[in-house]
Amino acid sequence: MALSAAKLGSSRAxxxxxxxxxATVSSIHLKSSPSSIYARGVGPRYxxxxxxxxxEAGTPPTSSISKAPLQKDIENGSCxxxxxxxxxxxxxxxxxxxxxxxxxxxxxxSGDLAKKKIFPALFALYYEDCLPKHFTIFGYARSKMTDxxxxxxxxxxxxxxxxxxxxxxxxxxxxxxRCFYHSGQYDLEESLAELDKKLKEQEAGRLxxxxxxxxxxxxxxxxxxxxxxxxxxxxxxxxxVIVEKPFGRDTESSAALTRGLKQYxxxxxxxxxxxxxxKELVExxxxxxxxxxxxxxxxxxxxxxxxQLTFSEDFGTEGRGGYFxxxxxxxxxxxxHLLQIFTLFAMETPISLDAEDIRNEKAKVLHSMKPLQLEDxxxxxxxxHTRNGISYPGYTDDKTVPKxxxxxxxxxxxxxxxxxxxxxxPFLMKAGKALHTKQAEIRVQFCxxxxxxxxRCFGTDIDLATNELIIRVQPDExxxxxxxxxxxxxxxxxxRSNLNLLYSSxxxxxxxxxxxxxLLDAIEGERRLFIRSDELDAAWELFTPLLKELxxxxxxxxxxxxxxxxxxxxxxxxxxxxVRWGDVNTSE
Length: 588
Ligand SMILES: NC(=O)C1=CN([C@@H]2O[C@H](COP(=O)(O)OP(=O)(O)OC[C@H]3O[C@@H](n4cnc5c(N)ncnc54)[C@H](OP(=O)(O)O)[C@@H]3O)[C@@H](O)[C@H]2O)C=CC1
Ligand SMILES: O=C1O[C@H](COP(=O)(O)O)[C@@H](O)[C@H](O)[C@H]1O
Fold this sequence. Notes:
Layout lengths: L24 E7 L15 E7 L9 E6 L2 H6 L7 H8 L8 E8 L4 H16 L7 E7 L5 H9 L12 H10 L1 E5 L5 H15 L3 E8 L6 H11 L7 E5 L7 H12 L7 E4 L6 H11 L13 E9 L8 H5 L2 H19 L8 H13 L9 E7 L1 E3 L2 E3 L17 E6 L11 E6 L6 E8 L21 E7 L3 E9 L7 E9 H4 L7 H11 L5 E2 L1 H20 L5 E4 L7 H8 L12
The chain binds NADPH dihydro-nicotinamide-adenine-dinucleotide phosphate (NDP) and the ligand O=C1O[C@H](COP(=O)(O)O)[C@@H](O)[C@H](O)[C@H]1O.
The site of NADPH dihydro-nicotinamide-adenine-dinucleotide phosphate has 18 residues, from helix 3.
């Protein structure tokens, strides 16, 4: 077993391996069921691995026991990744008495994302008993703050689940006691060394696993990783880094970021987050498709006319105009969130649910894409609008946005996959800010029924009679299938009805926030929902030529009023491929 001990976790450059074979190991015992990704919350959450080694020079101790959150963690780091010398010295000499600890450091703790998503998600995990027994949370930023001030700040962001309020106040107190703050510079090794000291105090000699969350602007990602690798990485456990988007703004800048990160990290230490992959209905997409016989056979050009992936927000870039103007909606939503859903939707059946098998299939989809043509894209920008006496600002009314900005706040695109399954099927994407509604959904329009016996009962518009499967990612999570049904009575009138799985009616459990799932996965070393560097490269290769062309040709976005349905150009684009946007009537 060759084990990639973290580059970050090691003060030495030499690869660290330990050969486990019949000559060195007399027996291996794996006790207790793990919290598999499909069994969260229903059993013990720890593997207990015992390796009884033969007593020979240079081999690990006779009996060593290691605990780790998941088998993957054992494989990916902790004590088994050490050379036999380190193995004895650092981790496993008396590992039977050693417990592991996880320290989570949030860089940019004073910022918006940390407050809005990261701390609340960590609390929710704590509340659900999903965090390891020994854990510590450190907020890190330049702002001056005491532990008590951080706790006050965090406490304002915490909420209890609607369905679980028992002991919530007490749990909050307990959680906050595990939160600390360190003020420091992002690029100073000394600051990170001070953090390291504080982390060690909390770790109290236990096997230390460290998760760093980069909730900071991307221009300082590398600084932090560099300083952390030198001064604050774990010496005997794993070290992982969650990286927030944007991962660059085109092929070149993304590659440069990846190169920078890989100077200090192995790919398997980098957790590139796309929080849409953590959304319940996106996670369910593969379950729906691969565990129900009725869907997978239909999942191809033979039965599917088109697929629509839509994202809309009913508010503008309020407060984030400065960031947004450098990116625009294609980079902000399409190149990542919608494209990730798209690859999950279109991929072939993976060999297994293993992260690499899934990510291999997703990457293949991206490599099979037809180049995206400018004529298959429509862009828009919202303008001010007054409704019911209330006036809504236009995008360029934001003081942080240049008055002559051409940055799109809306885009629609037609994409095609050049493979046997999807040849000729238009995948339409649409994303926009300041539209009439907040919604994200996947809509599958199936082919017309050949020689339909009932065609006379539909009138002339046969599109209205075709089946549609809708996966509503948010809000009001639902999966529904539009079918034709006979209206009860003596006549023969058909009615289009929904077979409707509305989550709030079917399940009483509150749906966890995407960040909860993703943070837990990162702690457990589960990479399935994180983006691998080759996926990222392929995603940028698809969009970079288009983005460059839009910028070089200074294509002006079509203006649309704040709160409207977006530019009409999106309808012409769909019509070019005989498609009608299914979300036009929101009740549908
Ligand atoms: N907010 C959101 O909804 C989303 C954010 N993201 C991404 O997550 C990351 C964090 O987002 P968000 O919290 O909104 O970011 P912020 O702009 O709020 O920055 C986070 C913290 O980083 C520090 N910081 C800000 N600018 C600089 C700078 N120029 N140099 C050094 N430090 C700086 C500040 O802390 P201090 O001054 O105390 O050090 C700030 O509190 C970003 O990469 C963002 O793109 C992704 C998706 C959604
Ligand atoms: O990544 C981003 O996502 C949010 C939308 O996320 P949601 O979970 O609230 O749907 C978007 O507002 C933001 O512009 C973008 O950067």
